[in-house]
Amino acid sequence: MKTLLNLIWLIFSGLWMALGYIFAGLICCVLIITIPWGLACFRIAAYALWPFGRTVVQRHDAGAASGIGNIIWLIFAGIWLTLGHIMLGIGLCVTIIGIPFGIAHFKMVPVSLMPLGREIVSTSAPAAYPHYRW
């Protein structure tokens, strides 16, 4: 089921979002000082291509530099990307068929709001949720 959802997502939403994140990543990498945000854009682009079966977890070893970088990202790009994901998620949740894709947009909100200090992992790996108790 994950593969089918990912293929439909790729055609209707994922490819376009990934291209946008790749374009933003290229711009960030051209400007030398913004390379960390460019690399984060490339990670988000890979997640935007194939979101089902993967999730975002916070890295506990991320330091103060990630926090400062996230504040800068939040001001210049994070708010706008997050609003886009929320609006698309609400729009997709209007129809029954679009609900899984709307939820996928909502899953991308934390990583688009503050990408530094986060990691994208597979949901099938038991280490994906080390701090949760099931």
Automatic annotation (TrEMBL):
It comes from the Bacteria. GO terms for cellular component: plasma membrane. This is YccF domain-containing protein. It comes from Streptomyces albus. The lineage of its organism: Bacteria, Bacillati, Actinomycetota, Actinomycetes, Kitasatosporales.
